[in-house]
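Issue 218. Parser rejects a valid record. Input:
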Amino acid sequence: MLRQSTSASQLTPPSTRIFFGTQPGPQSLFAKSAADITIYGGAAGGGKSFGLLLEAVRHAPRTAGFHAVIFRRQLTEITRSGGLWDESLGIYGHFGGTPVIGYREWRWENRSRISFGHLQVETDVLSWHGAQIALLGFDELTQFSFHQFWYLLSRNRSTCGVKPYVRATCNPDADSWVAEFISWWIDPESGFAIPDRAGKLRYVVRGPDDNLLWGDTADEVRPHLRIPDDWPSELPRPEPKSVTFIPAKLSDNPELMRRDPGYLANLLNQTEVERERLLGGNWKIRPHAGLYFKRSWCTILDYAPPGISCVRYWDLAGTEKTEGNDPDWTVGVKLGKDINNFLYVLDVIRLRVGPYEVEQALKQTSAADGFQVTVGWGVDPGQAGKWQSEYLTRGLLGYTVLPERETGDKITRFGPFSSQCKAGNVKILRGEWNEAFFRALEGFPDVAHDDDVDAAAGALELILENAADMGMWARLAGIDPATLQHQP
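Output the parser choked on:
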């Protein structure tokens, strides 16, 4: 991260003298890059987004008519607390900029602007038709499509005197188009950046079949440029685009480590895939069976400890097993938590039955669990899912029922449960259901059915939500939340 002596979420009076500078290493390489397209990517915490914000203000105060746009895929990623707009408040005012909040834009008296835009859907690029943008910035480039990136290059133009250029940041994503685009800078075996190639320029043009042709020099690929036959000879001829990649690691950002020494622990507690990506900067690692769960991570218990709070979360299906089908399972995971935040998988019910039998299973299981066990399930999107949830809730009158719509991809949702298992914080009560549960979790994400995974992830979300609600009620009532523990 680039150094600053004030909180990025506060707009310090411009009269206060503040020094903005790069830390030695990748941040300096990024700031000094002469490439047309520079991608600053790798591990989390390398100061990439802050570096992008500072790059945008390099020209605005001193170049009349300069326009930079920094894009995120979602609008909320710009406006949320700690997002790009918040970060800009700690920078641009010191360079004479005036924030125009309604337009998410900073303006200078010399008609320069720095704007923040989003491209939530593919066609949002069309709203930038006709724009002239001297600096195109992409924060988290892997979240944008190949088409969005290349279309906006057609808007990368300017008459302000600054040669148009592109700067982008990203974290590794093995399945993104960016991984292929920067593959020359990445070791194909290890997935890590090749140190000697960091910041080295390569040149790219579009080939006759719209494929990308690369060269170590502009001369290598210049003959492949498709210049119109009627291009006036007195005008400059177009040149291949120069591209470079600069890897970043958390260790490159000692300023962040001094300010937030706990951030490393946050990354170390991620699942193996996310840890390799966000801490190691690995561009090749992908999820595969065995990465997210191993039965050896969990202790098997013969008895559940007393005094734990419990929930039961259901991943619902509704198709009966027949000779010619392979339907999903209805899975109900009962999860407990003690006052030390150890987790206990106490029971797992797995059914392949029709809707009526599912409804009866929820009622009978809830009666066996008791009124003190909160019940939840995932609500399918659409009106049918809403009706089903309302119907099942009416059938569980007297129980605490918290159905929730599930959001996010399955790997991300299972990540917190996986992390707790790997840390040794999840205990399993011995039972006949153990083997099937273990096989389902160990096979994720390659297995055909991930219902056990969804139920385990949902149970953890539910028990944390339940604990938060109980804690808030207890504090309002003047009761110690630690005393609000129930028997399983």
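Fixed in the parser; the record now loads. The chain has a mean pLDDT of 87.
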